[in-house]
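Researcher: Next entry in the queue.
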Amino acid sequence: MKVIVCDSYESQCAAGADIIEKIVREKPDCCLGLATGSSPVGMYKELARRCREEGLDFSKVSTVNLDEYIGLEPTHEQSYRYFMDSNLFDHINIDKANTYVAKGTGDIDANIAEFRSVIAKSDVELQVLGVGADGHLAFNEPGPSLYWSAHKETLDESTISANARFFADRDEVPRYAVTMGIGEIMMAKRLLMILSGSNKEEAARLLLMSDDVTCACPATLMKLHHDATVILTKELADKIGYKA
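Model: Structure for this entry, 244 residues:
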């Protein structure tokens, strides 16, 4: 696993954007696996800037996202479809028909079946990842076992609490999500984790300072991938004692 330590969040986002730009320029019709959450927002803004100012072309790119809340319409401002549109897709020259975010409303079993089918047909060049404070990957929460394929996940109380800041009231936070499974994530040719946030210390420590691979911290499964990169800030690296 390759680890890149950056002096700031801005340089971290630029480093992530460099990796994605190289893939898009070398393979204009690539499929990118994307993630939501606070960590990749700056990287998405930088990619949008490069599209607008430097001619980075997303017109032939397709995308598939990791997850979606159950119970939120795509137009809800906290849905992950809305997140992707407002933070990236509305600002680059991508055909939204070639972007996929799982449906969180309607027949959930049918939605999961569709999600699995889309993933199976997608040849993901790179999967962007974040990590939860409890170490969850996508919405694969810690537990005695993990799912290989897309499924309905019950969100841990810690995840609900962490996401409550995005809602008017904690009671409004969805309790369930549709998420890509660990096996499907590992199918991507490359993994790229943007690791930031003061509440991510324990997850970062288990990922970078321990040899353990454990379902108690799903993010540690990244260590099993043949081409995985983690980009973190020097501040976080110093807090966990990581030395490049």
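Model: Residues 163 and 169 are 10 Å apart (CA to CA).
Researcher: Noted, moving on.
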